[in-house]
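Record type: monomer structure entry
Structure origin: computed from sequence
Chain ID: A
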Amino acid sequence: MRAVVQRVSCASVSVQSEIIAEIGKGLLAYVGAMRGDGAADVAYTASKIFGLRIFEDEDGRMARSVAEVGGAILLVPQFTLLGDVRRGRRPSFDEAEAPERARILFEELVQAIRSEAGCLLVQTGRFREEMTVRAAVDGPVTILIDSRRTF
């Protein structure tokens, strides 16, 4: 499972010009499932996203998690994270999980993060929909997560 996580001051997702999810300060995470991903990949990714210490403490160091700052999380399914352009300019999506299985894995990730988050707001984009994502990236801070640790 692969994720690109950004620290944001606000973010929203729209489908057909209608806002379907919106957060203030927190994390915006784009998530893609790889062929062969399973429960261990979901658990690893959920733990990493929720536990990231990328919010500043009183000394200006990135040392606080989203929970410690009372933030929110917006999870957006994005299979294009698995696009491979090593052999040309047109991305190959051979490593992306089949849509039906990817949907299940994404939903499991959402539930895992909601379980850890308790009362924190956790919003999602819509699987297999054309979405418009708007975000005010704070920092900018962008972190890459790969459950297979390939980077």
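Annotation 1: The radius of gyration is 15 Å.
Annotation 2: Residues 99-117 form the longest helix (19 residues).
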